Amino acid sequence: MAKKIFIGVAWPYVNGALHVGHLAGYMLPADIFARYCRFKGYETVMVSGADCHGSPITIEAEKKGITPEKLIAIYYPKILSLIKKYNISFDIFTSTTTTIHKKNVQRFFINLLRNGYIFKRDSYQFFSVTKKKFLPDRYIEGQCKYCQALQQRADQCDVCGRLLEPQDLLNPYDKLTKEAIELRKTEHYAFDLGQFESELKKFIQQANHWRKWVKRESLGFLKEGLKARDITRDILWGVKLPVKDIPKDLLLKNISQKRFYVWFEAVIGYVSATMELSQYIKNDKNYWQEIWFNKDWQHYYFMGKDNLIFHTILWPAELLGQRENYNLPFFPAVNNFLLFNEQKFSKSRGVMIDALSLAKRFDPDLIRFYITAIMPENKDTNFQWENLEKVINTELVNKISNFIHRVAVFYLKNFDNSFTNNDIENEIIKNIKRFYASMDFNLEHCKFLNYYKNLIDYIDFANNYLTQKAPWHLIHNERHKALKIIVNALQLIYSLRLPLALIMPTTEEKITKMFGFDKISVQVNKDNFQFEKIPYCKFKNKNINPLFAKVNLE
Asked: Which DSSP category does 195 fall into?
């Protein structure tokens, strides 16, 4: 039976243009994995959406002097354009503003409340005396009391990764006005995470297939003990609380002025998106239940490491708290940070390369290739313009594009679509199968850097084969041998399409069209990518240009 794979991709805030870090952190690795799963014939669903609520949205709207709705109207279409430009193959990309999502969040909350995991309490929130109102966490900056890092938010330290309570921030100030602020009491709902400690510990300890560092950091948070965490905030932009469904004795003071905290609400979007997919795309209102309650489904999540705790501890706790036997995360594919000039990409701090603008400057497949080469899978990596030029010119142009161009031109010039596939060498077949098996293993385990290395090893083998056999020396006196060599080279191109299609889908389509090949067949119910002998090669256009030219950034 074919596998069933759910892929949840982190939801970007709609408070500005998305940067290259978003592509490297979660969008591109998720897309590579989704394409792989579909080629393997797995039943695959990949979802995400725009995170439209919370203080990141209101801060940016306030800066621009517009409403949050107008801000979303500006940036949401740009995210959709980016997804299209970079060929990110979502089954659905929605937003947290849908009615389905709002009702779903309220449903999750009521279930947690009824099951005894939510309670109300007096907590402290920062208050601006000047503005005469409570300020959400992202309006606040200060110093982390644990690692002493400056300019950290009131909910999480980006440097040490700890979740913070307001009192954990030293010397706090209003981010927009730079004025000092004070802590004041306010009543909120809290999620009693401590009740899930033993369940979560057992769940994570048994996850031996997780990346070692992800498992280590997740268990590290549990060692410190889980504290109750507020799930509401004094803010007017967000999902409203279901007042009519809450017992009167559990209603908060000033409940109409409160909304769900975005950390609690946004992850529920994974379920909401599948509900929307079921209703409007699959035309099967019960399909989402198949994804979330059928244990045959494996759930993968893609995110940057600043979202690790939300997906390995907080989201599983929300699912467990429903007591409906939801599928828990099978594999959190957490990436480290992609840096720029040794700094973390940050929209709010102006450290960024606009991913949409980059797609206008370069072929998006070229950027997909480079990001795969420097994927921050196991450690932080640095985006460098000089390195981009080097990787593209050395690996993509000199090795891949040049090999394909040399073979195509030589074949057309000397044989004009004469073709026989009877002479594919056993050594060629053996090596293709070996590369396929290695690539398949690495993709199955979300080892994208190893997969990229496999791809480069493959093309190195192809180039070495062509150089050693040198058909140009045989063309005049041993024409039949030259044809045999070039057909074997065509076989290497034919088989190269499958691994290349995951990173560079548009480029693979160009190669397929150029050589007159059929589309790549789905590898249904197969343990490994399957070797297929090249059936034919039929160029329709004899004017062959290289796929890519060298990049010169001077």
From this structure: G
For 129, list phi and psi in degrees, rounded to 5: -65, -35
Give the integer Cα–Cα distance in Å for 367 and 469. Answer: 33
Q: Compute CA 306 distance to the chain's CA centroid, rounded to the nearest angstrom.
A: 13
Contact in structure between 219 and 212 (CB atoms under 8 Å): no
E strands, 179-321, are 182-191, 229-230, 232-234, 258-260, 297-304
Extract long-range pairs of 399-403: CB within 8 Å, 24+ residues apart. 399/456, 399/459, 399/460, 399/463, 400/459, 400/496, 400/500, 400/547, 401/546, 401/547, 401/548, 402/546, 403/459, 403/462, 403/463, 403/466, 403/489, 403/492, 403/493
**Tens digit of each residue's pLDDT (9 = 90 or more) over 341-395:** 777 777 666 677 999 999 999 999 999 999 999 999 999 999 999 999 999 999 9
Q: Indicate the CATH number of 384-515 among 3.20.20.60, 3.30.1300.10, 3.40.190.10, 1.10.730.10.
A: 1.10.730.10
In contact, 228 and 189? CB cutoff 8 Å = no
What is the spatial distance between Cα 302 and Cα 29, in angstroms, rounded to a whole number?
7
Q: Which residues contact 553 (CB under 8 A, 6 or more apart)?
A: 385, 386, 388, 389
- Tell me, yes or no, if the two domains 118-260 and 384-515 fold the same way: no
- Provide CB contacts within 8 A for 124, sequence distance 6+: 165, 166, 167, 183, 184, 185, 186
